[in-house]
């Protein structure tokens, strides 16, 4: 069966499941789930696409956010000094999500005012990125410039994404959207949040967890490298030396 047919059948099955759920749980105005609550990163991992679907028993717009584990990120600025490009200034942001995606049934600015989006951290520009101690004395304009650079870099890496209009709503009851995870995905616990927004206010929200984990040989190597870094480094040097010696021996024979 062609991939398009399989995807279509899977989508219809999920929609039917959402319809059943909405009929059996009328007391809940918003029901949402993921096609899988786990992403396995193997040696040949090239990315993954998960389907988020659900049903709503109320009017309004649907907004979906997926947030990855928090990390500290240092943003550096390069300037030309004496004809050489070098790092001149840097700011570290704490608690920045290493992955962030948002999808909505309409453009965000048409769904809610900026203060509501900022309160719920909906949209990359509304993420609360804190400046690390020692950097908080910087001017507000300078921090804003580095913040924009961080978001711009994350978007270029495919780790921050915003797709307005990508949430499909069927008959004002069922909704679905596809979330893409790039190959550079970090491990950890991710959080998917579905918001029902009406008249510029969040009236319902549901949170769903997602686990991203390394599996297979890649996971074993990763764990070994982090728990026994000295032995791993020594082994890497030995392998490099042996590989170089073998290559040299082959070329001498040729």
Question: Main traits of this protein?
Answer:
single chain; 254 residues; alpha+beta; Immunoglobulin-like; six-stranded mixed sheet; four-stranded antiparallel sheet; 6 helices; 34% helix; disordered N terminus
Strand content: 35-45%
CATH H level, superfamily name of the largest domain: Macroglobulin (MG2) domain
Largest sheet: 6 strands, mixed
CATH fold field value of the largest domain: Immunoglobulin-like
Quickly count the helices: 6
Strand order of the largest sheet: 2-13-12-4-7-9
Distance between the termini: 50 Å
Structural class: alpha+beta
> What proportion of the residues is helical, as a percent range?
25-40%
Write the layout of secondary structure elements.
Layout lengths: L2 H22 L5 E5 L3 E4 L6 E9 L4 E7 L2 E12 L2 E14 L2 E5 L3 H4 L2 H7 L9 E2 L8 H17 L3 E5 L3 E3 L3 E8 L6 E11 L2 E14 L2 H11 L1 H25 L1
Parallel strand pairs: 2-13, 7-9
Antiparallel strand pairs: 1-3, 3-11, 4-7, 4-12, 5-6, 6-8, 10-11, 12-13
Helix pairs in contact: 5-6
Short description:
With 254 residues, the chain is α+β, with helices and mostly antiparallel strands. It has helices at residues 3-24, 108-111, 114-120, 140-156, 217-227, 229-253; strands at residues 30-34, 38-41, 48-56, 61-67, 70-81, 84-97, 100-104, 130-131, 160-164, 168-170, 174-181, 188-198, 201-214. The strands form three sheets. The chain has a six-stranded mixed beta sheet with strand order 2-13-12-4-7-9. A four-stranded antiparallel beta sheet has the order 1-3-11-10, covered by helices on one side. Strands 5-6-8 form a three-stranded antiparallel beta sheet, covered by helices on one side.
